């Protein structure tokens, strides 16, 4: 459900692995929570990168679990732990970051995205509102009018627009995980390590 590896000697690379869109199922939330704790507690780890396998960051809540009672850790405390971590966490966004997946990226300290990726909050199309922090974190980044546009329409925006709005820190045409790892090393003053 997530893969944990150390790259460049000190960056914990956490990969969401839940085909087809790396949705945040109960098992993914549990594994992500454990791996964030592991990275934050490992003195050898200086920074963390979160990405998704097979060209997709995260499609949000796992819609296959919508008819079941909630199991596993709720999303918001997990995202709080990411944000409160003392080591920088970089989201490496490829494909889509939607709903809870976008919220996961918003709670990371930095966001690097592939130029073809799309971000959005489709909750409104399901008759609900984002409930894991996007309604606070997004306005802090891009202001209320642009946030309301995204929240009330559910429209996806492209990486370049997200960069212009101030959601993203960097857009790349290269391998987004590799670029995010370099970004993370730069954030802790270890560029070129
Ligand atoms: C509380 C609520 C929270 C925290 C939320 O996050 S609500 C938001 C939940 N997410 C969504 O509503 C996203 C819905 N999905 C899409 O918009 C699209 O599927 C996509 C953009 C993610 C991909 O589009 P596309 O490339 O055209 O592919 P398909 O639509 O055909 O989908 C491919 C398969 O993926 C399955 N899928 C898509 N989203 C999810 C999901 N969130 N959870 C689980 N599975 C998902 C989809 O059913 C297709 O499966 P198969 O039919 O191939 O088996």
TrEMBL record:
One of its GO terms (molecular function) is delta(3)-delta(2)-enoyl-CoA isomerase activity. One of its GO terms (biological process) is fatty acid beta-oxidation. It comes from the Eukaryota. Keywords: Isomerase, Lyase, Multifunctional enzyme. It catalyses: (3S)-hydroxyhexadecanedioyl-CoA + NAD(+) = 3-oxohexadecanedioyl-CoA + NADH + H(+); (3E,5Z)-octadienoyl-CoA = (2E,5Z)-octadienoyl-CoA; a (3Z)-enoyl-CoA = a 4-saturated (2E)-enoyl-CoA; (3E,5Z)-tetradecadienoyl-CoA = (2E,5Z)-tetradecadienoyl-CoA. CDD domains: crotonase-like (cd06558). GO terms for cellular component: peroxisome. InterPro entries: ClpP/crotonase-like_dom_sf (IPR029045), Enoyl-CoA_hyd/isom_CS (IPR018376), Enoyl-CoA_hydra/iso (IPR001753). In the C-terminal section; belongs to the 3-hydroxyacyl-CoA dehydrogenase family. This is Peroxisomal bifunctional enzyme. It comes from Danionella cerebrum.
